[in-house]
Amino acid sequence: MRMRMTRRRALLGAAMSITLLAAGCGSSDDSTDEAPAATTVSDADVEAALQAGGNLTVWAWEPTLTKVVAQFQTKYPKVKVNLVNAGSGNDQYTALQNAVKAGTGVPDLAQIEYFALPQFSLSKAVTDLSAYGAKALDGTFSPGPWTSVHSGEKIYGLPMDSGPMALFYNKEVFDKYKIAVPTTWEEYATAAEKLHTANPKSYITSDSGDAGFTTSMIWQAGGRPYKVEGTDVTVNFDDEGTKKWTGLWQGLVDKKLLAPTPGWSDAWYKGLGDGTIASLVIGAWMPPNLESGVKAASGKWRVAPMPQWAAGEKVTAENGGSSLAVTEASQAKTLAYGFLKYATVGDGAQIRTDEGAFPATTAQLTADAFKNKEFPYLGGQKANEVLSEAATQVATGWSYLPFQVYANSVFNDSVGKAYTGGSTLQDGLKAWQEASTKYGQEQGFTIK
Amino acid sequence: MVAAPTIRPAARRQPLPKKRRQAQPRNKTLTVVTALMVAYTLLPLAWLLISATKTQEGLLDSFGLWFADDFALFDNIGRVFTYQDGIYPRWLLNTVFYVVAGAGGATLLSTLAGYGLSKFAFRGRRAVFAVILGAVAVPPTALAVPTFLLFAKMGITDSPWAVIIPTLMAPFSLYLMWTFSNEAVPNEILESARVDGAGEFRIFFKLALPLLAPGTVTALLFNVVMTWNNLFLPLIMLKDRHLYPITLGIYTWNQQSQTVGGDVVFNLVITGSLLAVIPLIAAFLLLQRYWQSGLAAGSVKQ
């Protein structure tokens, strides 16, 4: 029908749909109307903006960006980048939401973790980058993070780093109690029991309820509890993959084989240092944190592939990691995109990798220098061989809720109880599902 | 941290020390309870002091309430002042500025307003009072986000004003000053001064203010402690690290331990906290002298 419209009517139609979009009520079927607006900004436009210069404000807590900004300003002296640490994680998301709501003080770019990105893309706080040629970057990033910045056909950020999961373990402790490095979850459970029996103070790992870890574990096990199609959302923890994980983990919880230490606390760092927390299944970005926070255990830790659900499988999931996104409120989007590209795929990707970040770009992940890097902290192990392989094995089809920040904040109210014996993991997840559903409905989502 | 003392108006009527000859025998239960309270209050401070002498590794390896093998207090202090290009002293000065301007201003305003509400009958006085009592019940934290949205419209977020202006509103200290004015400033004095031809400002500054001194100092202590310890308001309002008060600064250092690739500096967080409470304790001890002497001075013959 649209094909037959006269030119004038088509123009009118386009104008109307822009008005509708501006009013924030564009219906899903006019998404094709947005296409003409896309691809209007070419690489040359971006380069011109970089040469012309201007001011950019970047909100990020990622420490390696400091060096990226310095190098960027040397290369493009007319651009002044104001790098602001507006808080880590949730603190920054709150600040960003407040600023968007207030309509002033919104930065041009913001670091947003993958799990939080849908929340900001759906509320149109961050802008669709396909209009700036981001689609051409297909294949530049490893599939896990690249999928994470997509919402349908739209791209709401570029991956800064990634966190394909692996098993970090304290080799000294494993050797002392003659425990073989587990390759399957069954072996992992056996190792957990063997270790704790040999030394009641030692645990295979710590977990007192962590939403990010739980969702990543379900991800690897094949569970897909969240399905998101626009504003239609499904939350369902009653699937096979989820049950696989709860079956394993419930056993560890029941036998008290997990240290009840909250992650990232001083007690956690202590446990990682003195061998009472003997391993971690966590994202590939972990080595710098071990080096900085657990100096006492230097030389004792190693990296192995994530344990599998069936022997011989090679499936991992993403844990953590951040994107950098351009805000809708930015007055210099083209320039912002220029910086974004520099920081994530340009020189910035290498600078950040050299500074110890775990890259999301295939060029860095597959480089020989990267793979052959020996980590003195990890006893000289070429850990990136394991980690970059893990990046290629991330299971596909995962999505987070468009209100995951909220959902994660109430995780411990429901699933947390399972760790203190007040509930089971499966029941806890069911309660979490209900809490998420309720909140989603209040926010106007259609929840199935 | 140190709790602010409350003034008990009744204390002013206590017999003077010399009259206390027939003092009651010491109550053992009371002594034990007091000792427990002292331990409860001082243990965290002791922990802070001991922990500040440890390195990052020592902190994790040793028992919390005793020293580690390495004594790194001075090293830690040095690093606190130089870490991240020496931003800590800047944060300290910011806090001092916010305290002087915010808590000082709040005390001045609440003394004026409390005295005014107490001594002048005007239309709507009861309504004003009801609003103030209501405001005492609203936690400042609940107002932080609406205040942010308001300030964003005015364009003063991320500036010192965003911290100072909300701090100036201190309903509790206003309430305190109202009560204190009722008790400590006899209307007879004001009337005789008026008969003698003194203006209202002269009466306030020359007569009322000295009588109000103990109350003012108490209100000041309250406001100083509140402002010094305020975290949430600056967290919402400020983005520029160079405007952070000490609380927010130390909080960001602590957050680094939970950040991918972040520098874990628990030792600096602890030493920084120790250094941050010292001025507060000093202010307290100094001002305490004043409000104690003020207590005696406040016993007016009626």
UniProtKB/TrEMBL annotation, chain A:
Keywords: Signal, Transport
Taxonomic superkingdom: Bacteria
Family: Belongs to the bacterial solute-binding protein 1 family.
Signal peptide: 1-22
Name this protein carries in UniProt: Sugar ABC transporter substrate-binding protein
Organism of origin: Actinoplanes palleronii
Gene3D superfamilies for this protein: Periplasmic binding protein-like II
Residue ranges the record marks as coiled coil: none
UniProtKB/TrEMBL annotation, chain B:
Domain ABC transmembrane type-1: 92-287
GO biological process annotation, one example: transmembrane transport
Primary localisation category: membrane
Pfam families: BPD_transp_1
Subcellular location: Cell membrane
Domain of life: Bacteria
Membrane topology value: Multi-pass membrane protein
Keyword set, alphabetical order: Cell membrane, Membrane, Transmembrane, Transmembrane helix, Transport
Gene Ontology CC terms, in alphabetical order: plasma membrane
InterPro entries the UniProt entry points to: MetI-like, MetI-like_sf
Residues annotated as transmembrane: 29-50, 96-115, 127-149, 161-182, 203-228, 264-287
Record-stated family: Belongs to the binding-protein-dependent transport system permease family.
UniProt protein name: ABC transporter permease
The species this protein was found in: Actinoplanes awajinensis subsp. mycoplanecinus
Lineage, uppermost ranks: Bacteria, Bacillati, Actinomycetota, Actinomycetes, Micromonosporales
